[in-house]
Amino acid sequence: MKKVIIRKTEEIEHWRRNINSEINFIPTMGNLHDGHIKLISTAKNDNSNVNLVSIFINPLQFDNKLDLENYPKTIDNDIKISFSNGADAIFIPSNEDIYPPNNKNIKFLKAPKELSSALCGLNRIGHFDGVCTVVYRLLNLIKPKNLYLGEKDWQQLLILKNLVLRMKLNVAIKSIPTQRDFDGIPLSSRNIHLSKNERKLIKFFSSELLEAKKIFQQDKKINLNQIIKKLSAKKISIEYLEHLHPHTLQKARLEDNISLLAGAIRCGETRLIDHVFLMKRRPIIAIDGPAGSGKSTVTKLIANKLKLLYLDTGAMYRALSWLMIKESINYKKEKNLQNILKGISIVFKSNTNSHQDVYVNNYCVTEEIRSQKISSIVSKISSIKEVREFLVEEQRKIGESGGLVAEGRDIGTTVFPHAELKIFLTASIDERAKRRKSDKNSQDSQEIDLHTLKELIKTRDFEDSNREISPLIKANDAIEITTDGYTINEVVDKIIDLYNDKIPKETEIK
Ligand code: PAF
What we know:
This protein is an alpha/beta fold. It has three domains: 4-176, HUPs (Rossmann fold), CATH 3.40.50.620; 189-279, Pantoate-beta-alanine ligase, C-terminal domain (Pantoate--beta-alanine Ligase, Chain: A,domain 2); 284-508, P-loop containing nucleotide triphosphate hydrolases (Rossmann fold). The chain has helices spanning 9-19, 34-46, 65-70, 75-84, 95-98, 113-116, 127-142, 154-166, 196-219, 224-233, 295-306, 313-326, 334-343, 372-381, 385-398, 411-415, 429-438, 444-447, 450-466, 488-502; strands at residues 4-6, 23-28, 50-55, 89-91, 146-150, 172-176, 237-244, 258-267, 270-279, 284-288, 309-312, 346-350, 356-360, 363-364, 404-408, 421-426, 479-482. The strands form four sheets. It has a six-stranded parallel beta sheet, sandwiched between helices. Strand 13 and strand 14 (363-364) form a beta hairpin. The longest helix is centred in the middle third of the chain and has 24 residues, at 196-219. It is globular and about 80 Å long.
């Protein structure tokens, strides 16, 4: 494809009509560094869309005239960097193109107060309104499928995600972690203004944040005053240092698994920001929903793609049911039940096909636990209080350090009520019966006709939803996804998008 430079807004429309492809959009203000290169190359490697980089120093987002005048302008170099790292087109509009005088169609937007009055918004009055205005204008001109933004400006990222939702824009936001220089300071176009000594100070600031992250991993606590004291001792001028919820930007609460420690300091004329995410354990995805909604297939694929552990809690109930049948246990007798719970070991092991096998007391039961015989008793077994308590405890032990995706019927409500992402996956009874009938791995496909399968599913739903202990209910904060009419991959991609939206990419960096 011929690489092009577009300078006029009218040409954008013409270019868009001719490319015959979706667009990845990377907005910048120029003076491109490795952070921008990472955005451009990520977009290039993500898909086969056309990549458009914009270079526009937006006057509306500068609260200080001098800062605007001094903003580094390196356009020739920016063009070279963009094209050599995967841009197919570069949009370099003028001020008049973006903000034509007397054009009543230009919307001057306000950023939401809740997000823009914290952190950088405290001192940079109008800054985020300017960012919203320019990005909205650019998105309307370019109409991209994906918008690539850096997590370095985390508050900006949140505000732009909010803009996309608020204005109902059809664009997916993809974020990339903060890129750091050799000495650990975040890459920023403003770094070229730093003197040697100022650079030392920002390096100290960034390393203090990293240190706080390390301490948090051990103590699960943060002492803001101590950090402020250390910074002040080095005569670092702190604009703010806050410990907040990463999405609402309200004060972090004790129960928040992921929180944001963000600060801004002044070095001479230059103002620099940095942050770290504090995490008590790795993230957890909880996928609940009725039998046959596709949970297992979807959960396995997600675990694989996100490199998370796959916790199939249903298999644990089936495994226990299998042992009860095998040992002819009358589970109604308390003593029998206690003995079996005391002696059972349920273990998941990856097999050579990159799937997971289930072992009960060292015996592989992967196939056997899927039989109709087990299906017919598992709901009853799993409604026994002692069984539930025992297995919920086992599941929590497995999930202690997080990093897993768990499926079941009470994961989001009972087992992991603080999971970062909760999905309630469902499908109509017709759809679920059809899926089970065509599942070659299920013995149901050979043994039972469609009508009977539907009746069995209805009964199972009723039992699961009406049992006293941990009934199947959607957690208040779960996102319901009805899978009728969607392919498995579409459902998986949707859940991964939701995950990426909640979990900062930076938390994945070791
Ligand atoms: O992050 C930036 O460089 C700018 O705020 C943006 C998103 C290009 C809007 O001018």
